[in-house]
Amino acid sequence: MKITRRAHIVATAMCASIMSTNSFMLAPSSIPVRCNIGLHLSPTPEEAGQQSPAKKNQENIMEMASLAGAEEIAKLDIQERTKRAMLAESVEDRIFELVDELEGLVKENNGI
C-alpha cells in the first residue's frame, strides 16, 4: 500500500505523541532523536521540487527519533515488543479510520 508523505507525517506525529507518554516511552529524552521509517513514499506534487530547510530539518528530527526508538525497542523482551506492536497496529487502524472520515467530510463539503 502506498501512502502520501502527508499521511505518513500525520501517522508519525501521532505515534510520536504516544512514544512520549510515561507508559509508552521508547527512548530517554536525552537521546537525540532520528527517524528512518523505511517506507518508499511518493512526494506530493508540491514536494516534487526542492524541500525547504524547515522540512528537511523536520525529516532529520523524525529520522533521529526512529533510530533512537529502534535501538531501545531492540533491548526489550519479546512480550513487551509484542504488546507494543499490537498497540501500534490499533493506532494505525484508527489513523486510517480517521483519514477515511476526514476525506468523506471534505468530499461532502466540496473540498472545504
- Give, in order, the helices and strands: HHH
Number of strands: 0
| Largest sheet entry | none
Distance between the amino and carboxyl termini: 27 Å
Mass-distribution shape: flat
Radius of gyration: 16 Å
Number of helices: 3
Roughly what fraction of the amino acids lie in strands? Answer: under 5%
The poorly predicted ranges are 20-40
What does this entry look like structurally?
Helix 1 (5-19) crosses helix 3. Helix content is 61%, strand content 0%. The longest helix is centred in the last third of the chain and has 31 residues, at 78-108. It is flat and about 50 Å long. With 112 residues, the chain is mainly α. The protein has helices spanning 5-19, 53-74, 78-108.
Question: Would you summarize the structure shown here?
Answer:
With 112 residues, the protein is an all-alpha fold. The chain has helices spanning 5-19, 53-74, 78-108.
Keywords:
mainly alpha, 3 helices, about 110 residues
Secondary structure layout plus pairing:
Elements: H1 5-19, H2 53-74, H3 78-108
